[in-house]
Write a structure and sequence with these properties.
With 581 residues, the protein is α/β, with parallel strands linked by helices. It folds into 4 domains: 1-50 and 271-451, no CATH class; 142-267; 460-520, no CATH class; 529-580, no CATH class. 20% of the residues lie in helices and 31% in strands. Strands 7, 8, 9, 10, 11, 12, 13, 14, 15, 16 and 17 form an 11-stranded parallel sheet that branches. A 5-stranded parallel beta barrel has the order 22-23-25-26-24. A hairpin with a 6-residue loop joins strand 36 and strand 37 (489-490). The radius of gyration is 25 Å and the shape is globular.
Amino acid sequence: MNSETKICQNCKSQFTIEPEDFDFYEKIKVPPPTFCPDCRLQRRMAWRNERTLYKDNCDLCRKPMLSMYSPEKKFTVYCRECWYGDDWDPLSYGAEYYWDKPFFEQYQELMERVPRIALVFYHTNINADYANFIADNKNIYLAFSVVESENVYYSRSVDKSKECIDCLNIAESEICYGNVDGARNYQCRYIVRSRDCINSSFLFDCANCQNCFLSSNLRNKQFVFRNQQLSRDQYQVEIHKLNLGKYSNLVILKKEFKELIKSSLHKFANLVKTTNCTGDNIGNSKNVKYSFDAYEAEDVKFSGRVLMGFKDGYDVYGAGLTSQLIYEGVATGKSSYNVKFFTYTDASKDLSYCDWCHSSSNLFGCVSLRKKEYCILNKQYSKEEFEKLLPKIVEHLNTLPYKDKVGRVYKYGEFFPMELSPWTYNETIAEEYFPMEKEDAYTQGYGWRDPDPYPHKPTLNSVDLSDDIKETEDSIVNEIIGCASCGRAYRIINPELEFLRQQNIPLPRECQDCRYKERFALRNPLKLWHRQCMCDYQIYKNSIKHPYHLDSRCPNEFETSYAPERPEVIYCEACYNAEVV
């Protein structure tokens, strides 16, 4: 089959469906999408609220809890214990299927009736009441999308790591602070796009380095200070001069680090041990296309945050743990198979248009079912009844489609409409990756919620904090501190203070949200542009490093997450390796 060019019904831009895409759609028996890849990603993200949390009471036991649903929600929300308990039956909310009403209207009514879990918790988590989108962790606080980790605070997208604070998108790391896009780092602070580093600070794009400081584009180095090779003794002298525990010194160093990142060479993509992959931040993977933040994945396209054995999937955000044959969904959990158009499943197979259904099979349009099969709109059917009714419902989705407020049409094969999301647009991660103003959100048919006034007043301004962590008293954990950027109050908790003292890191002057935004700004967008390598013979005409283009600009082209208007120097892999390896 040849490739086809389509017009996205959301943004009206052109997008191409390749022969390999048609093969996948045929395999899972769905029609081609009518939204372009970027709009499909935005739509999925509008169904994922990670970091906007509220204090509430469980609608069953009435105990206080933290919830990702605002207090004025339309939904019934249970705490984890009640949702997994036996005091309610999700099948009791089952509904007949009506042929005179679009499916998505019926689904929305079911969503508003069936109790929902307050936070996304998979499997066993210990001391993790103040976290969301977590699986198999211990001691997690105000951290989100964390898997198999311990003692993680104020972080996001952390896997198999320990003792990490203020980190973003890291894996298999330990005793790290302020790290972004890294793996297998130990006792490192403020390092970006770096891996396999030990006892280092302010590194960009470094690998297998020890005791290095404020440097970039290093490979297999020790005792490098501001990109200058020193002896062990010289390095220790320079580090001692800095006193990294003083905040006033940290401000200067962070500014210098930002300039260093801008002036460094940038490889077109962060691809490590990959075969036939395009995207960014991909490791140990094969045939992963137009995807981001993926490792140990295979045969995946248009996806993000996929890991640990995820295989044969399209258009998924948050997937892994050996799940296979997955399409258009958010958070697969572990060992799911043949699941499409879903949010938050786990250990399930043969599901379509389901939300929070775990350990189940053969469900369509269901919410909050566990260990069930052959159900439609939470109503139990026999196997024969289910298999007879399902094709008729698919046909009904096409003959009586749902049309949203701005005219987008949803037939069978489309993910859930954004206007049906349990959250407003700015409560979800869609606002982080596809930001828009409040008025624009309303124009496009999305909801918006103005933040609540923060209830706590500061007892101490951040400018009054001790400059040196060594001068910080234990009583700081009793203070409510005013953020230097947004004015919002925040606190220093005991494990955080202990970590900062041990690692000689000054107290933060900003709240956890402002610190997160600072880290997030260091990452590239989840989007690709077609560009040419910027390596030019005018720079290397007297060098033998680049013999294949000594008399011209490098001809290599690639897909990169660096937009054309950005100032960084972007190299293809060949030119990049000639400089840094």
